[in-house]
Amino acid sequence: MKFLHLDPSFTPYGKSIVFTSFVFNGGEPHIKISEESMDNEVTITHRLNSFNDVGLLLVATDALRRMDVKLINVLIPYFPAARQDRVMVGGESLSVKVYADIINAQQYNQVTVFDPHSEVTPALLNNVKVIQNYEFVKQCLKQIPEEVLLISPDGGALKKIYKVSEYLGGIEVVECSKKRDVKTGKLSGFRVYEEDLKGKHCVIVDDICDGGGTFLGLATALKEKNAGKLSLVVSHGIFSKGFEELTKSFDTVFTTNSFRDLEEEKVIQFPVIK
Fold first, then answer.
1. 40-62 per-position pLDDT tens digit
2. Structural domains in the chain?
3. pTM over 0.90
4. Which of 33, 117, 127, 143 has a Cα at 20 to 30 A from 87?
């Protein structure tokens, strides 16, 4: 099997098929694969952070098919719009289904995604393989010498974090909650359902960190309940508002390279695929 790594900074499987890509002045992505001979099976990898990234994936798929590649797999570590997995107010789109329909139309042999936001994404995708976050969390906890508590940031994360706990041998889980205004997105009402955290190292585990508002609000609530050190473990690090506030509140932030590459103080990044 050969591999086509469309992002030159994301090469989880080693050497890539040689290609060139560019964007026309009109905004259309284009690709030219340089190799003349091709295997029967090829795996494409790409980090889909924009519609242009999706477009490059599609034209790459077409190019391979025109070279008589019969089986095409794709690794999409961060599946776009996975958070938009339900319609909250009238007039919104079910965005994750839009992306899933585009991917399904390509009739890939296998679609691999890492730690999707909910069960909706794998339910919408054909021929899907899910890489769970269990091993990633295990890697992170190896960096922490003391006993920890796993912190579930909200009700949506509960099912996943108890599965992580079970995989890790039954680490204690502390449940938390918050309120979100569905019209404005404003967060409030952070609650920790434990009276005394007894100075233990608290590790928040979640799938995505975008602006970080959930985790900053929760960090304050945990400290009010006598938390010791705080760490944040997120599978997909967008970090749209940077790290200044996060690194004030957390001793360490752990993430993967599913979305982008990072070199930041107090941030430890692991590869999605070792």
1. 999 999 999 999 999 999 999 99
2. 2-131 (3.40.50.2020), 134-270 (3.40.50.2020)
3. yes
4. 127
